[in-house]
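Lecture 7, part B: from sequences to assemblies.

Below are the input chains for today's worked example.
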Amino acid sequence: MKIKKNTDCDVLVIGAGLAGYIAAARASDLGLKTIQAGNSATLFFASGLFDLLGVFPIDSGKILTKPYSAIKKLQSDQPEHPYSKISQNQIRESFQFLTEFLSSAGLNYQLPGPDNKQILTSVGTFKPTYMVPETFSKGCDVHKDEKNLLIVDFKGLKGFSARQAASGLGEKKGKTYTLSIDLPENNGSLNPVHLAKLFENKDFIQRLSDKIIEFSGKADIVGMPAICGIHNSLDIVKSLTKKIGMDVFEIPGMPPSIPGLRLKNAFEKKLSTLHVNFLSNAKIVFHAMEKDHFILQAINDNFETRIKAKGVILATGRFPGGGLFAKRNIVIETIFNLPVFQPETRDLWHQLNFFDAKGHMINQAGLETDNSFRPLDETGKPAFENLYSTGSIIAHNDWARLKSGTGVSCVSAYTAVNSFYKKNM
Amino acid sequence: MHKTMETDVLVIGGGVTGTGIARDLSLRGVQCILIDKSDLNAGASGGNHGLLHSGARYVGSDPEAAVECKNELEILKKNAGHCIDDTGGLFIAVKGDDEKYIADFPGMCEKSGVYCKKIDIALAREMEPVLSDDMIAAYQVNDASINPFKISIENMNDAVSRGSQYLSFCKLIGFKMINNSIEYAFIINQDNGETFQIKARTYVNASGAWAGIIAAMAGITINMVLSKGTLLVTSKRMTKRVINRLRKATDGDIIVPGGVVSIIGTTSVRVESPDNIYPTINEVDHIISEGEKIVPALKTCRYIRAYSGARPLVGEGNNEDDRSVSRGFTLRDHKVDGADNLITITGGKLSTYRLMAEKASDLVCWKHSIFSKCLTKEIPLPSTKSGEWSEPGIMATEPVMSKIINDPILCECEMVPQSAIDTIVSSIKQAGGKPDLTSLALRSRIGKGPCQGAFCSLRIFSHMYDSNVLKDHSDIRDLKNFLNERWKGEKSLLWGQALAQSSLKEMIHSGLFGLELFENKN
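Predicted structure of the full complex, as structure tokens:
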């Protein structure tokens, strides 16, 4: 027998990816009574890097250094893109809000400047990004300087090879060395979460430093897989830096992502102190409008909670998040059955080549919105007065190709919550 | 001056027929070099059901082929048991199917000597609970499932162990003809761009759907008709046995278990060229709508892959060579066409590959005046370690599980450990090939589970850097090629969970790693 509960709130945020967390952060920051529902395991897929716009136009094949001038061009070329609904100031404000919020939660990000940074990835490519954790900061644009670099990997940490990462630095001026460390904890394979926890142990840091110190004559800076602790990662990196006598930075790799886990922990911890009620792994069903309030139900294994909400922020993502679901021949929105912008037939969803320069048309699918990110109905009017959307569920937003996912999440969440607040409070 | 290699026989094409010929001839003491422009089973040998026909499917349309299938089934079960899952099969009819064909079926089977036994509908449903409620007739037959990759790998391994050679990614670009004879063949190694010559006594065109293109290089016309067949792979095994629709052979009427998955097909569409064929959305939807009539769960189940192969058929209107053994396949001595030392073997089916190899090898020996008997009927096909990992679901077996303590699993969907990758890498190196993700995928199950290579590609790729198999940044194009190969089989099946999974793959490989920005030099 499930426990039945009743609750009400100013804002219900549906979704616990970055867009959902940022919306909940902004809502609670504005003093709104907030409930958030979702499955936060999705952040294991978040690299921890915040992108703004890394490639534009989509088929340019090139990495952008100056995102703001490209956004200006995007705003005039593609009025339907989410960035075309906001001002550049709103972007700056939203990132400022996000860094301050995360910093208050104990997770330090560098406040971004005007330019993109390039970050070496575990496969040896460079990722254009905008805002990085402090633990990544020394590695920004590492291929452009003359420092001698040491890249470290751990035997048993699958998918991260120092040699492979180093292969991307062929044109770097300084030398690149690699070191593969075989820990006694390695019994064939090392779980990234366990390994990250080992970093929180002082003896482990000492042991690790001793192994790296033999390179201190040759190298000037050390790159490590992004597993330097789950909590207090910045302190851990600083302590390594001090012991080794070289700058240390983290390198992003394949999921599960520890920097993503750090984000999840930081948001969860801070939001609970701000009294955001988090309904974990709850499936949300929309029942009806009662006057101008939404009546919804949150169902998980133990509870059935009836929620009365003044406003709803839809941050359910696209296909992996479950905000959109593709039947064999049509894409639907899963909670409010909102109209979904999509290619007409399934044969237009995907290109023949996975890496086609133009991207796949299915990644343009999503909700059409007004300038405050309220989803529109068939007639082009907001489907509900107080229903907002944020993140990848918004249409015309091939974020994986444009390297713009977290930027769209950040600015749409911030803008949507602000609009709701201004209109209703 | 080009490098020249010499051999008794040059076999062109590394499918089941070519590798079967290499083994057959090697057993008779005739040394071969086998070349393929891609790698083993790149054509129809890798693009089929993996079905070892009992013969029942052909009793109405081609009794001669039915008998061949029946005989070959017995030989292969005996001699290549490790490549076969002896599942048995059912023929079932549903409401609306041709009642005359149903009534005639047992008689036709009897005429060809093909085993078939009528069983109760209730029993059939007990045997295979997923069968449709509309079932009106059921017969039990001797069909089995065969792993065509393993067959080719093992045949080639055995041929190599007997002194023959395999050259992958070596493409024939022409023949040097003197009078009515091939003096040598021009080859290009597509890995390094190097060209060389192979001089042989006899040249065997076993290139399947490409047979017309190869023959044309010797000035000979073969009118090939290419029929594209598309097949779908489900994420779980649907039935224990092979399920055939009891009707005249048409689209979407066979479901074959392949280890932990099932394979449904097929279609038949004329194509002009054997290159660049891929499944279309229409074919996929058509196969599902036909398949669901016998197994309704096919409507809602998850699919992980679709692929296509081109059946090589030799066109009507050709002068039928008198050595053409059966309508099932074509064997031609091109002496009559003006090329004394070239033969072509094409057409046929997976089930009769051994017989085709036997007949082609007989012809080679006859031309060389060697009097020797085919030994592939008697001598079992050896099982080797590098063939082991092409088997779906091999990890489910107890002895293998116990071997892998301290051996990291690199492909978690199909449970392929690091030691298996190392074994396959060294066997590819031994054969003179270049190990990369694509050649590993051909010889193992990597990338064939639900994640379709999203994660295992990265784990295996970095392991190859660690073990010095890969060194250069430019090797990223191998990762791209591998993902794109997987993609060809995914893109027509992307809805529901599969679309969510492929979106994750794009998040990682494009969103984080930006592989689309890495210049693809291929």
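Note for the exam: Chain A has a mean pLDDT of 95. Keep this in mind when comparing with the next example.
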